[in-house]
Amino acid sequence: MSFALGSFLHTLPLTALAVVVLLAITFAAALIYHKHAVIDVAWGLGFALIAIVTLVASAGHGDPARRWLITALTVLWGVRLAVHIGWRGRRHGEDPRYDKLLSRAKGNRDAYALRSVYLVQGVAMWFVSLPVQVTQFSAGGLGIVAWVGAAIWLVGFFFEAVGDLQLVRFKARPANKGVVMTEGLWRYTRHPNYFGDACVWWGLFLIAADAWPGALTVLSPLIMTYFLARGTGKRVLEKHMRDRPGFADYVERTSGFFPLPPRKTT
């Protein structure tokens, strides 16, 4: 199997530039709407954009089946996530998480947001997407590892999409205002969407790892999983919810990340 190293290296600045342009547009929108939470919409779109830019730039290199497969899966995941977050937050003001973060600013809040939110997420987006970028330039047909990766991606996409839909429907009922969601997939894990997100990126990594040098990008899914399970995902959200009635009991009986049968409580 061969890898078009030179062409890959020439593409890296292009994907970085694509991220910069997207986040510049997002920052401008945030200033207009006074809402830096719009970057959450750009998160999924950024990965989709990187996949498309790399697909175009890798024309004539790599395996066509692998290139189109990983691009399609990345775009489908990224666009669905962006649409969901955009629709969910359309009638809300600034996210309390960003309000708390920006309250630390000693000077201009927008300048602080540019450094501590946009720059950080831009670097993370570009680095986490490396399996998608690398595999576009890898030759060789799809093997068993790639198909296992596609299956894991499908499991992850199911958990993330269905979990989000179940939560939206639950919150739509007036009687559930302030109530902890414990139905559907949320009965088996407190974060089916985060678990699904992690599976999506491990699946994309395995598609990349099916051909050299995709296996070298293992830090990308590891970092994404850390963000979701230990970093800015699960930990921050649960800190925000810990005073909600019934949440402590929910934590006691429900797995924090990996789906498991509910534990019996006394």
From TrEMBL:
Top-rank taxon: Bacteria
Keywords: Membrane, Transmembrane, Transmembrane helix
One Pfam family it belongs to: DUF1295
Record carries keyword GTP-binding: no
Record-annotated membrane-spanning stretches: 12-34, 41-62, 68-87, 112-132, 144-163
InterPro entries in the record: UstE-like
Annotated signal peptide: none
Protein name: DUF1295 domain-containing protein
